[in-house]
Amino acid sequence: MSISKERIESLIEFQKKYNLDFSDINLLNQAFVHTSYTNENNISVFSSYEKLEFYGDAVLKLCVSDFLFNSFPDYTEGQLTKLRAQIVSDRNIFEYAKQLGFEDLIVLGKNEKKQGGAKKQSILACAFEALLGAIFIEYKEKGYEKAKNFLSENFLDDILSFNSKIDTFNPKAVLQEYTQSIDHKLPKYNVVSQSGKEHKKTFFVEVSYRGKVIGKGSAKTIKSAEENAAVDAVKNLNIKGQQ
């Protein structure tokens, strides 16, 4: 995929602003290319941000887990899981993408552009994860540290501020409210397995709705495992405003 001189200048300016230095400008550009563009121009889907997004999702979760684990040593696994789920939700990383000016950098097909794709939560959130994936790849053995530093330099205060919201988030209640709003049916929790010695068991729980598994979680108690499964379900169902 060819890149115009003007586009290269925009990407160089972006890098200067956020302390990045890509030797492969094509890799950086790819993080902003939506599939609507590759589809309309008969370009391989591998030139879009899809695979980078897959990678970046894992990088984001690991970085945030690192921040939370070290910042809140007294928090339980369940509390950390709830907090991370809120931080990495599409709703929040969409806001981070807007702060970085992604609306001006995203590359869209003509139809998607007309439909306001540059302002869509799902598109900008995915591009944000793709950028983290690109950073991880570009910096090779230092990729994780660079991605972590990038988040720390730009968003650490925002990330840690979610601590004040942890007690207001009840994933089981959120999920129940959601399913009841559809057909008045409740989600069902099931312990599918357990491991470990009697006094150190880990319980694995699945939550189902309409006979379909919508979330999974594990913890040292059944209650916490159910809460973690509910957190997973809330994220999987993309329940707005509650992730």
In order across it, which strands form the biggest sheet? 1-2-3
Largest sheet: 3 strands, antiparallel
Shape: globular
> How many separate helices?
12
Average pLDDT rating? 90
Work out the strand percent. Answer: 5-15%
> Can you say what the CATH homologous superfamily of the largest domain is?
Ribonuclease III domain
What value does the Rg take, in angstroms? 20 Å
Number of strands: 3
Contiguous low-pLDDT stretches (5 residues minimum) are none
Structural class estimated from helices and strands: mainly alpha
What is the straight-line distance between the termini? 36 Å
Order of helices and strands: HHHHHHHHHHHEEEH
According to CATH, what is the topology of the largest domain? Ribonuclease iii, N-terminal Endonuclease Domain, Chain A
Q: Any idea how many domains? A: 2
- Percentage of residues assigned to helices: 55-70%
CATH C-level of the largest domain: Mainly Alpha
Do you know the CATH architecture of the largest domain? Orthogonal Bundle
